[in-house]
Amino acid sequence: MDAVCAPACVNGNCTAPNTCTCDEGWSGDTCNQAVCAPACVNGNCTAPNTCTCDEGWSGDTCNQGLHDITCVNGNCTVPNTCTCDEGWSGDTCNQAVCAPACVNGNCTAPNTCTCDEGWSGDTCNQAVCDSACVNGDCTAPNT
């Protein structure tokens, strides 16, 4: 006499009264729950080792955020959000960060100032005079 399982086993065999032995990749009382290894992060395990990702996520385990923007100096870690590499900021990680800030110039790479004409120094705070000041300091370009 064959064993009877109620409810019936979905992805396995009824091996004793109301006892299912699940096929590989399935679990649960009736073998109706798929098993994913590794587990799905932002989605559901819908078949053995197959994740169906939540909206905005991709990858084998749904751990990669989708994005409509391009992260220039960083990575998309959650949907439409960039996590910037060190030294970069902004929505798309395209703005260099200088600390301290550039005074008379632009921050063109992390901690790298490109000085306006007539200025020099790490933060572009030193005026440049074409002729040396004899009895004073150069306080502005050629002044």
Describe the structure.
By secondary structure, the protein is mostly beta strands. The chain has strands spanning 12-16, 19-22, 26-27, 33-34, 43-47, 50-53, 57-58, 64-65, 74-78, 81-84, 88-89, 95-96, 105-109, 112-115, 119-120, 126-127. The protein has a two-stranded antiparallel sheet with strand order 1-2.
Note the total helix count.
0
Mean pLDDT equals 91
Helix content: under 10%
Head-to-tail CA distance between termini: 106 Å
Calculate Rg over CA atoms: 31 Å
- Overall, the morphology is rod-shaped
Protein name: EGF-like domain-containing protein
InterPro entries: Dev_Signal_Modulators, EGF
Keywords: Disulfide bond, Signal
Domain EGF-like: 51-62, 113-124
Chart the SSEs and their pairings.
Blueprint: E1 12-16, E2 19-22, E3 26-27, E4 33-34, E5 43-47, E6 50-53, E7 57-58, E8 64-65, E9 74-78, E10 81-84, E11 88-89, E12 95-96, E13 105-109, E14 112-115, E15 119-120, E16 126-127
Antiparallel strand pairs: 1-2, 3-4, 5-6, 7-8, 9-10, 11-12, 13-14, 15-16
Keywords: Disulfide bond, Signal
Domain EGF-like: 51-62, 113-124
Organism: Meganyctiphanes norvegica
